[in-house]
Design goal:
Length: about 325
């Protein structure tokens, strides 16, 4: 008998339970971070991008199939027109209890306007990317953004009661020396902070190996100054967390290049064009937009999802020396 979407949890070919979806709602962005995009990025024509209704339908199907945590991302999710309406309609799954966590990753530039309505719709926490506290450095990294916008966004998030995690990509030339100050600042504000190794995704204008920082070395040097107590918790993703005894804050490290983290992977990613990537660090891709647009019946979409999961790769294959290791940009898959 054919399985209905609600029949089973999503389990991949290696027995990993898939319960976490990152859904990109746009490839566009109001920043051009040097490690993420080329300066003259070509964005997708609108017809290729899923409508808000299609995004809702797809996310809702995944939730029926076993997704418990949903993160909207991009590009910059808050530049997608109507994104609050999407949060609003998805919040019904929080109310029904089918979804445990609805959240987003944002560059924070628009958060001052969005924090309060998002909190009202059931968003409890938000990841905000911030790579430097120095206004000039920040403008260089983002190619022209204003740090004051992000700081205003962070203040609004705090005011709205959102729990904040700062994501910082470690960059040899742009923030390496300032990383301890970043950690101290974030913890002073009551924010957790996660350091991320730059991953070789998509052609950019710079040579990534010039900017690559091995975070295992950063951890060693921070451990020489602070007491880092390992935390057992994991989100089923690449981050490993430590408690900094002196600040009381939480510090995460995402080290895809210097370590692998794939054994317990619980996540999949869908681009704003409806392409399912079962691994951030591999080229595997399955189109869900065609079956989604071909019929109002979700069964063929569910079948395509299960087919992709059966082939989810065992692990990623990132190598910083290969330019790029994965052809698509992070802004396509959404980080
Ligand atoms: N625009 C939003 C933001 O910046 O938070 C969401 C999308 S962004 C692609 C998601 C995360 O990916 C950000 O924390 C960003 O710093 C990170 N990122 C982008 N390109 C990356 C790369 N090549 N390697 C590692 N992290 C990257
Ligand atoms: Fe935009 Fe986020 Fe990429 Fe920066 S990291 S260019 S903010 S999508």
């Amino acid at each position: 008998m054919a399985q209905s979407p609600a029949d089973a949890r999503m389990v991949d070919g290696f027995g990993r339970n898939i319960s976490y979806l990152r859904l990109s709602v746009t490839d566009r962005c109001d920043m051009r971070c040097v490690y993420c995009m080329a300066e003259d990025m070509q964005f997708l024509p609108k017809r290729d991008v899923l409508s808000l209704e299609e995004l809702d339908r797809l996310a809702s199907l995944f939730i029926r199939m076993g997704v418990k945590r949903l993160r909207l991302t991009g590009g910059e999710p808050l530049v997608r027109k109507g994104v609050l309406g999407l949060f609003q309609s998805l919040s019904r799954h929080l109310q029904s209890g089918q979804l445990q966590d609805l959240t987003l990753t944002t560059n924070g530039a628009q958060l001052a306007r969005f924090a309060e309505p998002l909190a009202r719709l059931g968003v409890r926490r938000v990841n905000v990317s911030l790579d430097s506290l120095d206004p000039e450095r920040f403008a260089r990294i983002t190619r022209g953004a204003k740090i004051s916008d992000v700081l205003d966004g962070l203040a609004a998030a705090r005011e709205a009661g959102l729990k904040v995690k700062i994501n910082t990509v470690a960059l040899a030339q742009d923030n390496f020396e300032a990383l301890p100050d970043m950690v101290r600042w974030a913890h002073d504000q009551g924010f957790d902070l996660t350091l991320i190794e730059a991953m070789p995704m998509g052609e950019i204008d710079e040579d990534r190996s010039d900017q690559f920082v091995d975070l295992s070395k950063v951890r060693q040097s921070l451990a020489a100054v602070w007491t880092l107590n390992p935390l057992a918790e994991t989100t089923g993703g690449p981050a490993r967390y430590w408690q900094v005894a002196e600040t009381g804050g939480k510090l995460g490290f995402i080290t895809p290049l210097s370590h692998t983290f794939c054994e317990a992977c619980n996540r999949i990613r869908v681009t704003c064009t409806g392409t399912l990537h079962t691994c951030l660090g591999q080229e595997d891709a399955v189109d869900l937009r065609a079956p989604l647009r071909a019929s109002a019946d979700d069964a063929p979409v569910a079948e395509a999802i299960r087919g992709a999961l059966a082939l989810k790769p065992k692990g990623h294959d990132f190598q910083i020396s290969r330019r790029p290791s994965v052809a698509r940009h992070m802004s396509t898959t959404g980080g």
